[in-house]
Design goal:
8 helices; globular; Endonuclease, Chain A; binds zinc ion; 241 residues; single chain
């Protein structure tokens, strides 16, 4: 008989909020961001932290967390199997596309380069959910214009182009779906990279441990995202409307 202790559900407490300044996943309910250090201060408008983040659209609470998690876990399981068995019937690209389709709150990613095909998929996902990405290695060409113009076509897509030296860009590439699941590895967001992974010539791993997803996200996405912002004068945010 399969064994599963429902007690473990009580320990399933994924991050519910995102930092307003660096979009770190906030885990422990303390009003200080562990990544950028900003402190959230209660005011007459908001005395509690949770309602402030909900009002700002920076929450990741789900109508049915268990069902949503099951769907993502199924994608991860099928993708892992296909990578291990070189099963062409469910290539990693399909796992990526399906997870973009399943996202309910946000998608965050880092990549060195991006293909037009995957940018199109991401723009489509950004019609429903917030998509934030840090992209390195983009030259001033057609793709650069695609990423820096036409913002009204997909207003919830927000990308930051990392123009510094490539060696300062994290080698670890990630795509995080709702803070519940992540793809990590060496493959960039290009169809070439993801199809190479199907043949074992590029690394993509699936992460479904929520603690590890948070750690990856807050280590490889938020600090790079925050590096685009000028240093703040104040390390506090007053929780007002
Ligand atoms: Zn922060």
């Amino acid at each position: 008989m399969n064994s599963f202790d429902i007690d473990s559900l009580l320990r399933f407490t994924p991050p519910e909020f995102l930092c307003e300044r660096c979009f770190a996943l906030l885990t422990d309910g303390t009003p200080r961001c562990p990544v950028c250090g900003v402190q959230y201060v209660a005011t007459g408008a908001f005395t509690d932290y949770g309602s402030y983040f909900v009002a700002r659209g920076l929450d990741a609470r789900f109508d049915n967390l268990i069902e949503h998690s099951r769907r993502l876990a199924q994608i991860a399981q099928r993708t892992r199997h296909s990578l291990a068995a070189r099963d062409a019937s469910y290539p990693p690209m399909r796992g990526l596309l399906e997870s973009l389709l399943q996202a309910e709150h946000f998608i965050h990613f880092t990549t060195y380069g991006i293909s037009a095909l995957l940018l199109g998929a991401i723009k489509m996902a950004a019609l429903r959910v917030d998509v934030r990405g840090v992209i390195s290695g983009i030259k001033h060409d057609t793709l650069y214009r695609e990423l820096t113009e036409h913002e009204n076509e997909s207003p919830r897509l927000n990308v930051r182009l990392f123009q510094n030296e490539a060696q300062y860009f994290p080698h670890q590439k990630i795509v995080v779906i709702d803070g519940l699941m992540a793809f990590k590895g060496s493959a960039n967001l290009t169809d070439f990279g993801w199809r190479k992974a199907a043949q074992g010539r590029e690394v993509i791993e699936l992460v479904t441990d929520v603690g590890e997803v948070t750690e990856l996200h807050n280590r490889f996405f938020s600090p790079v995202w925050a590096s685009f912002q000028p240093a703040a004068n104040d390390d506090r945010i007053l929780m007002t409307v």
